[in-house]
Amino acid sequence: MSALLEVRHATRRFAGLIALNDVSLTLAPGEILGLIGPNGAGKTTLINLISGTLAASEGEVLFQGEPVNRLPAFRRARLGIGRTFQIMRPFPGLSVLDNVAVGALFGRGASKVPLTQAREQARVWLEFVGLGNTISGRTDELSGAGRRRLELAKALAMQPKLLLCDELMAGLNLVEIDQIIDLLRQVRERGISLLVIEHVIKAIISLSDRLLVLHHGEKIADGTPASVLSDPIVVQAYLGKKRT
Ligand SMILES: Nc1ncnc2c1ncn2[C@@H]1O[C@H](COP(=O)(O)OP(=O)(O)OP(=O)(O)O)[C@@H](O)[C@H]1O
């Protein structure tokens, strides 16, 4: 089966710093790929290159076999590349419902979605993530875990084929982490492929079909969780210091 996403030899420089160096990957339809590595390894930069938030200095991103390098982020979102952000910025003046409706207005095939329909879709996704009873509330009334779920609902309302998740579980307790894992599994069951950045190693192992490890901007491993976690290079670069 051909890849849903392919990154070919992606490099990103910031002035003198090489944040990402010649990284390639593929992601198959329906797959969950975990992206791990120490702080500053280049994980968010890689997601930014895929979503179009940042341009690659070199290399190519293909989605459904088509190059998307030249497309701005909103065009990539309309093709079906959705994402969550590590630093969440809900729209403070809007209700929880309308924060998610914004996702529906700007997502895949979204140019003609009327507001009433966007709100209806938002309601469905808020129910899905377990925030159905908060829809008329304000986002600053949500708990930390609630804000993560809101971030997930906003991204899902864009009807992505590929969802890029940037540390959705950061700062959550073990019960909340298990709930997010369960939600992400349900997302995959709905036919959405996932690329997930996560520092919580136990969570990413149990969720991912495959793991890709970045270190100093370079890919140092890519394979099944078992093979990657027993790789001496990965143990030395990351797990030896970081395992939780
Ligand atoms: N806009 C930017 N300008 C300059 N340097 C940047 C920029 N964005 C990222 N960097 C640098 O690129 C490197 C990779 O950062 P990135 O955020 O991709 O790492 P990360 O693996 O996501 O880290 P973390 O786990 O801490 O979120 C870091 O050294 C970072 O300081």
Individual helix count: 9
Strand and helix order: EEEHEEHEHHHEHEHEEHH
Mean pLDDT: 91
Q: Write out the strand line-up for the largest beta sheet, numbering strands in chain order.
A: 6-7-8-3-9-10
CATH class of the largest domain reads: Alpha Beta
Residue runs with pLDDT of under 50 for 5 or more positions: none
InterPro entries: AAA+_ATPase, ABC_AA/LPS_Transport, ABC_transporter-like_ATP-bd, BCA_ABC_TP_C, P-loop_NTPase
GO molecular function: ATP binding
Organism: Paraherbaspirillum soli
Pfam families: ABC_tran, BCA_ABC_TP_C
Give a description of the structure.
This protein is an alpha/beta fold. The chain has 2 domains: 1-80 and 160-244, P-loop containing nucleotide triphosphate hydrolases (Rossmann fold), CATH 3.40.50; 91-159, no CATH class. Helices cover 38% and strands 24% of the residues. The chain is built from 9 helices and 10 strands. It has helices at residues 43-51, 73-79, 96-106, 115-128, 144-156, 174-189, 201-207, 225-229, 232-242; strands at residues 5-14, 17-27, 32-36, 58-63, 66-67, 81-83, 162-166, 193-197, 210-215, 218-223. The strands form 2 sheets. A 6-stranded mixed beta sheet has the order 6-7-8-3-9-10, sandwiched between helices. The relative contact order is 0.17. The model has no long low-confidence stretch (mean pLDDT 91). The structure holds adenosine-5'-triphosphate (ATP).
